[in-house]
Design a protein that fits this description.
The complex is a heterodimer of chains A (328) and B (328).
Chain A: E1 2-5, H1 6-20, E2 24-28, H2 44-48, E3 53-55, H3 60-72, E4 76-80, H4 87-104, E5 114-119, H5 135-138, E6 144-146, H6 151-163, E7 168-173, E8 179-182, E9 195-198, E10 203-207, H7 211-224, E11 229-233, E12 236-238, H8 242-252, E13 255-262, H9 267-277, H10 279-284, E14 290-294, H11 303-308, H12 313-324
Parallel strand pairs in A: 2-3, 2-4, 4-5, 5-7, 6-7, 10-11, 10-13, 13-14
Antiparallel strand pairs in A: 1-8, 6-12, 9-11
Helix pairs in contact in A: 1-6, 3-4, 7-12
Chain B: H1 7-32, H2 47-56, E1 62-65, H3 70-75, H4 80-87, E2 111-114, H5 120-134, E3 141-146, H6 153-164, E4 169-175, E5 178-179, E6 182-183, H7 184-187, E7 204-208, H8 212-229, E8 233-238, H9 256-263, H10 267-277, H11 283-306, H12 313-317
Parallel strand pairs in B: 1-2, 1-3, 3-4, 4-8, 7-8
Antiparallel strand pairs in B: 5-6
Helix pairs in contact in B: 1-2, 1-10, 1-11, 2-8, 4-11, 5-6
The chains are: A alpha/beta (328), B alpha/beta (328).
Chain lengths: 328, 328
Amino acid sequence: MKTITYREAIREAMTEEMARDEHVVLIGEDVGCYGGCFTVTSGLIDRFGERQVIETPVSEEGLVGVAVGAAIMGMRPIVEIMYGDFSTLASDPLINHAAKTRFMSGGTQSVPLVYRTPMGSGTGAAAQHTQSLETLFTNIPGLIVLYPATPRDAKGLMKSAIRNNDPVIFLEHKNYGVQGPIPDGEHLIEIGKADIKRKGEDVTIITYGKTLFSVLSAAQTLEDDEISAEIIDLRSLRPLDTQTIFTSVQKTGKVVIVHEAPLFGGFSGEIAAAIVGDRETFASLKAPIQRIGGKEMPTPFNKYLESQIVPQVSDIVESVLSLFTLGV
Amino acid sequence: MAFTFDKEEGIKTLNLMMRSRIFEQKIEELFSVHKMHGTTHLAIGQEAVHAGIALAIDEKDWIVTTHRCHGHTLAKGASIEKMIAEFFGDKRGLSKGLGGSMHLIDMEHHNAGSSAVVASGVAIATGMALQLKRIGSDNIVVAFFGDGASNRGVIHEAMNMASIWNLPVLFLCEHNMYGMSSSADKMVSVSSIAERGSSYSILSESIDGNDVELVFDKVKSICAYMKTEHRPYLLETKTYRFSGHSKSDKFLYRTREEEKQWMKKDPITQFSNILISKGFISEQEIKAIEKAEKEHIDTVSEIYLHDHQELTLEEAMEYVYYKEEAVL
C-alpha cells in the first residue's frame, strides 16, 4: 500500500499498460513534453517515445476520429482531450462512430478506445472549461462511462478501461492532487461495480466524481446528529450497478443523490428512476428521493459565484436532515 | 502515350463496371416497388471511379467509403449475395442486417466500411493509416468523400494530420457535381477541390473520373509515389451521378439538358466503345456479359426476397458490446 495522487494514479495505470502492450498509445494535444494540460501525462514521452505518445494538432474531432480508425486496425488508443467541454467537438467520432462500430459491422469491427477528459468546475476557467457533460454519453448504447473519484479507483478502472474491447469514456475530476492509498502490484477494478465508500444505516447518499469528497465531509457532520450515512460511489455510470443501490436503499429507506452537473436532466434522474422502478426498493422508501445538483446556469467566472454553483456540504447535510424531520 | 488496358484487363474492368450498374439498377427497382425498406444512395454513372481505383490498388490496401458505397464495396470484392442480403436486412448480410445500404462493411476484402456522416470516415481512414504505419505495413488507405463533404472541417483536420505524420492516405474526392441538391459551383470555394491539397502540402490532381483507364493509371502511379515517398495524396475525380441523391430525389436542382450532356460521357458506353474499336470485344459479347450479370443478380435478389432470415432483437443486442463468443 502506498499513497499517491489522483494524477499519479492515472499516470501509473497508463504507464503500466503502455509497458505491457505497445499497441496502447496515448494520443492528444500537448501530451508530450508539456505533460498534458493538467500534467497527467508528464514523463510518458521520455519513457515511450513518439511511437507510443502521439501529439496532435488542435483538432479534437479529427484526432478522436483518427483514434477510432486506429482502434479498428488494432491500436488501443488512450485519447486525452484537455477539457471535457471540448467533448462537443469530439462527439461525432465518439457517438456516431465509436459507439456504433461493433454493432453496425455485425461484430466484425471493434473500437477498444479510452477517451480521457476532465470535467467540472473550481478552476476559475469560466463557462466553457468547467462543465460536467457526462449525460452527453450516458444515453448512448455502445459506450461505457466511468467517473472515478479516488486514486485507487482511478488506477484500477483506467487499467480495466484500457484492456476493455469497447469504447470507454473515462471522466476525471480536476482535483488531481487529491491523495489516497493504492494497493501494491497489479490492480484492476471490474467495470460496472459501485463502491460503498462509507458504511451506514440511516440514509444512502449516492454520488460520483468530485462531489464524493463533499459527501464524505457531510457524512462526518451528520455523525454529530447521530445519523449514519452510507455513501455509494458509483464509479461507473454506464453500466450502472443498480444492485448495490437497491441493497443499500432497501436497508436505509432514505436516498440523497448528489452530482455537480445541473439537476435538470442530470444523471440523478436515472438513478431515481431505477430506485422507484424496482418494486422492492420502491416499497422500502420512507421518504421522497432527494436530488442535489449544480445550479441551472453557466459557470460564472467570479470565484465567489463559481464556488456557489456546485453542491455545498451544507446542502447535503440539510437535505439529509430534512428526511429526518418530515416525521418519517 | 496514354495508358490502355490489354484485352483481358479491359474486359474484366468493363465487366466490373457493368456489374455495378446492373446491381444498382436492380436495387433501384426493388426500392421503387417497395420490396426493399429504408433508403438508398445510388452511384449510377460513377462506376469508372470505383472500378479504376479498386483494380489499381493492392488487394491488401484498405478503403473507407461513404453513404454512397455500393460501387466501392462491389469493386473491392464483396460478395453480391452478402450485399443483397444486407439490403434486405437479412442476417446473412455483410453486417447481419444491422448496417444496411449506407453501411456496407467488408473486413474480409479490406473494406473498413462507410460512415454515413459524410466526411467523418476520412478521419477514421487517417487513423487506420496511422496504425498501418506503426505496424510497418506498406499498405495504403483510400478515403472516399464527395464534393459536398469536402467542406466539412474534419477533412481539413485529417489532411493536416496525414501530412504532418506522413501517413499513407489517398484522399479520394469523388466530385459528382452535387451534394444532395447543392451544386458544387455554389458551395465550394475553389473550382477544383484538388487545389486544397496545397494548403496541407499534399500533392494533388484533378482528373476525368469517367475515364476508367485514366483513373486506373493515375491511381497506380499515385500508389507508387505514396509507397516510395511515404506521403498522402489528394485525387479529385470529376464525374456525375445519373441517379438522384437518394430514392426520394425529384431532380428539381438540375436540368434535363445537363443530364443529357453528361449521358454522352457515360463511363460504361465510353469504355465499351474503346474496347469495341480495338476489337477486344463485340457488341454481342457485351450483351452476353450484361445478360449473365443480370441473371445472377436477379437470381440472388429473388432468393433473399423470398427467404428472409433475420436476427432476433436479443441476438442483435449481442453486438452492442464485446462478447467473448462473438466472432471478430
